[in-house]
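assembly run, all chains below
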Amino acid sequence: METGLDHTERPRRGRRPAAEVRAEVLEATATLLAAEGMRAVTFDRVAAKSGASKTTVYKWWPSPGALAAEAYFTLSEADLAFHDTGDLFTDVRSQLSSFVRLLTEQGGGRIIAELIGAAQSDADLSAAVSEQYTMPRRRLAIDYFERALDRGQLRADVDPSLLVDQLWGACYNRLLIPDAPLDVRFAEALVENTLTGAAADGYRN
Amino acid sequence: METGLDHTERPRRGRRPAAEVRAEVLEATATLLAAEGMRAVTFDRVAAKSGASKTTVYKWWPSPGALAAEAYFTLSEADLAFHDTGDLFTDVRSQLSSFVRLLTEQGGGRIIAELIGAAQSDADLSAAVSEQYTMPRRRLAIDYFERALDRGQLRADVDPSLLVDQLWGACYNRLLIPDAPLDVRFAEALVENTLTGAAADGYRN
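ok done. output:
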């Protein structure tokens, strides 16, 4: 029965705007994720930490994994902004270097590796990570590459989505299968290789 | 005490060459992996299925994960052979297409995704997957690219290890984060992009 008087939603602070509560839940989740990893993200602990009611958290997120994925998106959004200065090499190098630093120096790698790892045996988590984190990030990169295509900076037949796998995907590969170092030097060589091509001049298909 | 008379190692068939027993254990493991996934790979079930003793299996492999990773390497070795015809584009396209078919049409994807997924929260498994599967495969690709470098087919400043992440790593990305299709068409475009470069002719750094 919807009475509009569900006191369990506002246990301590009275009625607050939904957007504010939502932001606080995401921030509390991000803090738990960064400090203790995925296992800390339970609706109980998130509710306790954010001051939101468990009812609210249950109503807004289908699972702790979905909440964790969205919190990671929010947490990383500023660091991963895709600046468009109009210079393809500079913009991609700058974004990819920030991405690698977030993974390696700012603790993002452990969180995202845990999310993607657990998603391999949890279809709901896989869908949540995709919807809340990886697809929105892929979309931002594709938007940038579509502008670069319009500017004539990419070959007209290049699939922007494929570039996402060649650049960020290659970094995820080194994160998840740590056989070779993931660092800014790698990111920069990756951009150079991806845009310029690895084949020797004059050796073409 | 090593008496050379450890009957528990030969429960049913008498003394057999170690290499033969080893191959049978790997084959039994591969069969279990393909049919039921990682959870089926226990030393008990592998011993029962292969006819080797549990003592032998325990002696030769540090963990079921290490055994699974080696079994997957053996299982996939023929399909993933890196043929060197001397034509860089053809060889890489052919190997990468076989790799994608193994992952998508021959059931390899589920096994490797499960191994890499579980490795994110299990350092021993991560080391085993690296040692038994991903590093040996990376080495084979690097060997090929070093020959291509010697033939002058790759730019002299290209890092062969980085090409592994751009090609196979990009495929693993689509396997583990299924936001875009992993298929042979993708593999072929990936080879073209990686070798030829995505930047428009005349637009260079």
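The longest helix of chain B spans residues 123-150.

Residues 113 and 172 of chain B are 8 Å apart (CA to CA).

not gonna interpret more than that til we talk
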